[in-house]
Design brief:
Blueprint: H1 13-28, E1 30-42, E2 48-54, E3 57-63, H2 65-69, E4 80-90, E5 96-106, H3 109-126, E6 143-148, H4 154-165, E7 170-175, H5 182-195, E8 207-212, H6 226-233, E9 239-243, H7 251-255, E10 258-259, H8 263-270, H9 274-331, H10 334-402, H11 404-408, E11 414-416, H12 426-429, E12 434-439, E13 442-447
Parallel strand pairs: 3-5, 6-7, 6-8, 8-9, 9-10
Antiparallel strand pairs: 1-2, 1-4, 2-3, 4-5, 11-12, 12-13
Helix pairs in contact: 4-8, 5-6
Length: 451
């Protein structure tokens, strides 16, 4: 029989709730809890409700509006965080405890995701992921380099596809670390060496396959390395990435020339199936044979047509030439030759007569022009001479009327000074002692008595 200790104190619901609250808050106070954000909700009044989850365990949490506005990391569904706050209880409706979150920081995978997103945006802005930079994979490669770990199952899966597909090509396997700090360094060095192989010693691969199996976000983190991303971008050889499962996206998947969902899918992409190649060859061969046979049939038909056409055209041509020859032979008889010579002689005489008539007519016309021009010249010359004589006679008469000697003949005289200057007034005469008077028949020297 079960006995209850009667000395146990009795509490009301409120009293026990308050005691638990004091005990819980006193024991833990301010705590940091790491977990994954789950069940995120924001109420109309701005209060944020969420849970911090780890596998099957979870703790409820609340963020007040003023605190939420000042958070440096905003909680998101599925984000792994470290929440700092105070443990408290809540007894309204149902007794529970929760964390009043005052700050949040990223934890584990959350930190890596933040770095991933930041580097992704940087490289995206630089254009490293642009489709224009993607190189086309050779359809039938001669040499392929597989960069992966020899200890995992990935290489076995790839080689199985290679053997099953039966495509003949050279395959090189380069063992590298696919996890940890060495992973991006070793893969970057391999890509550089493959691009700088000496052509006299080795043959460059047509495709580089970088592959690794699944793993956690931290396990695959090496494939988000900036140096590795840039080495793939700068590779002159096309690079195929096959990292993790289909849902695992790394930065080298974004920069690679082709991203395969899994290593097996990548192998089926780069190793063609030999049966499909043979099938295509047979199909092309059949189509080529049909094309050739069709061409031969058409050529024979055209040849027969040309033979018949040539025979008909040749006979018609010969008949036409014979008829023309007969006509020409008939026209070449003696009588026709004599008639032809007479016609030529008549045309020659007629042409000579026309030439003589034309020449005489031209000469006659030229003579008429010459006589008319001579008469016109004589007529105009006589008129010009008569006109010139009349003008000379008029000018002679005018000159004679102006000659001072003719004036002297009419009883006038000219008085000059001793220095042969004409004296035309009494005033001028008074200035001279002697003067010379010139008459029409002589000269006379006189003395000025007034002087």
């Amino acid at each position: 029989m079960f006995f209850v200790n009667e000395n146990i104190p009795e509490f009301s619901v409120s009293e026990i709730s308050n005691e638990i609250k004091k005990s819980l808050e006193g024991e833990f106070g301010y705590v940091k809890v790491r977990g994954e954000v789950s069940g995120l909700k924001i109420s109309k009044n701005g209060i944020v409700y969420l849970s911090l989850k780890e596998e099957k365990d979870l703790i409820n949490a609340v963020i007040w509006p003023d605190t939420y506005r000042h958070l440096t990391v905003i909680p998101e569904e599925g984000l792994e965080v470290i929440a700092s706050g105070r443990i408290t209880t809540y007894s309204k409706g149902i007794s529970t405890y929760q964390i009043h979150i005052e700050s949040i920081e990223l934890a584990g995978e959350g930190v890596l995701k933040a770095k991933f997103e930041k580097l992704k945006q940087q490289l995206l802005a630089e254009g490293l992921f642009d489709e224009i930079h993607k190189k086309i994979l050779p359809k039938y490669p001669k040499s392929i380099a597989i960069v992966t770990s020899l200890t995992g199952s990935v290489i076995r899966d790839i080689l199985k596809v290679f053997n099953d597909n039966g495509y003949p090509c050279d395959v090189s396997i380069i063992d590298v670390s696919v996890q940890g700090e060495k992973c991006p360094i070793e893969i970057s060095e391999v890509i550089y060496r493959l691009n700088n192989l000496n052509p006299d010693v080795s043959i460059k691969p047509d495709i580089i396959l970088v592959a690794r199996g699944g793993g956690s976000y931290e396990d695959l983190w090496g494939f988000n390395d900036e140096t590795l991303v840039r080495s793939i971008f700068n590779s002159g050889i096309p690079v195929v990435s096959a990292i993790g499962h289909e849902t695992d996206i790394s930065l080298i998947d974004l920069v690679a020339d082709f991203r395969a969902a899994t290593p097996t899918a990548a192998a089926n992409k780069i190793f063609p199936k030999i049966d499909e190649i043979y099938s295509k060859i047979n199909s092309y061969e059949n189509r080529l044979n049909i094309f050739i046979q069709d061409k031969i049939k058409k050529t024979w038909l055209n040849l027969n047509y040309f033979k018949q056409s040539f025979s008909i055209i040749g006979k018609s041509y010969l008949q036409e030439k014979l008829l023309r020859f007969s006509g020409v032979f008939g026209r070449l008889s003696k009588k026709s030759l004599e008639d032809n010579i007479d016609k030529k002689a008549s045309r020659l005489i007629y042409s000579q007569n026309l030439l003589f008539l034309g020449a005489n007519k031209i000469i006659s016309v030229k003579d008429s022009y010459s006589i008319s021009a001579s008469n016109n010249l004589n007529f105009h010359s006589k008129n010009i001479i008569t006109d010139r004589k009349n003008k000379i006679h008029s000018m002679s008469r005018l000159l004679g009327s102006l000659d001072y000697k003719n004036i002297l003949n009419r009883g006038y005289a000219v008085i000059k000074s001793p220095d042969d200057i004409i004296i035309s007034s009494l005033k001028d005469a008074e200035d001279h002692q002697s003067m010379r008077v010139i008459f029409s028949d002589g000269k006379l020297d006189v003395t000025n008595k007034r002087k």
